[in-house]
């Protein structure tokens, strides 16, 4: 087996603003692909329109920037036509959840074997600073000068509502965490949704500041790993417990709380109730959940399509178009 390095997947000079979160994610994607070990020509990177959707230009793989909001549709066609391709779908929060929201939920619902990456900076960057579907209520922007009067989408909630089988989250500035969830997404058979929290230094600077820096993540985020207790804090002094139908943060040693009282993360549980509660946690009362939050197996759309074609074809007299053409008299025109 040939060994690859991140350099084997690089192409061109990225044209993003200095400090843009896209730079961080691109480097992590290159590294993840190298560690996965699939040849560049075994990968396809497909995007829509937006700052993050320029990413295919910087990939030494099959790559295609398509039209606004349609990355999921094009990715579906690529995967069904060539099941051997590993397809990485790249979208921003505007491209993926506004004009592309319908395609997003149906790709997830169908469970097509795609790695669906949502780069979430809570703003329209390419069109110069309008609020997006993930911008918080009250957010002031060029298209909401007095603050938005609507609640945002939570990408996790959309994914779970569409019966998503895989959801993970990472911070763009956390390269090891990003690489880890990208590799997990690749290993998952089916639609894998990865939300990447990233910054827009021009129009929404500091939007994820609570977890952008390593020293802040220890107290404001929790890294979830399947089968491990849910601890967080600088010294893992805090944990999560169930309280009624909800969650609560506890401190070890207080009120008799011990490690045995802390919840164990189960990413493989088919019932997504607790996983969704984890995915929706927000500060300041709760840590932001990072890592693989949900990872369950289910039949995939692309496998089912090919199985159906083979089953139906086996019952037919003619198995392909060429055989059909040759059924009756033929002639050659010279």
Overview of the structural elements:
With 334 residues, the protein is α/β, with parallel strands linked by helices. The model has no long low-confidence stretch (mean pLDDT 95). It has a domain at 6-212: Thiamin diphosphate (ThDP)-binding fold, Pyr/PP domains (Rossmann fold, 3-Layer(aba) Sandwich), CATH 3.40.50. The N and C termini lie far apart (49 Å). The radius of gyration is 22 Å and the shape is globular. Helix content is 30%, strand content 18%. It is built from 11 helices and 11 strands. The longest helix has 16 residues, at 21-36.
What features would you highlight for this structure?
3-stranded antiparallel beta sheet; alpha/beta; 11 helices; 8-stranded mixed beta sheet; TPP_enzyme_TPP-bd; 2-oxoacid:Fd_oxidoreductase; THDP-binding; 2-oxoacid:ferredoxin oxidoreductase subunit beta; globular; Rossmann fold; 334 residues; oxidoreductase
Task: Please render the helix and strand layout as text.
Layout: H1 21-36, E1 43-47, E2 62-65, H2 71-81, E3 86-92, H3 93-99, H4 101-110, E4 115-120, H5 155-161, E5 166-171, H6 175-187, E6 192-197, H7 209-212, H8 214-220, E7 221-224, E8 231-232, E9 238-243, E10 246-251, H9 273-279, E11 288-295, H10 301-314, H11 321-325
Helix pairs in contact: 1-6, 3-4
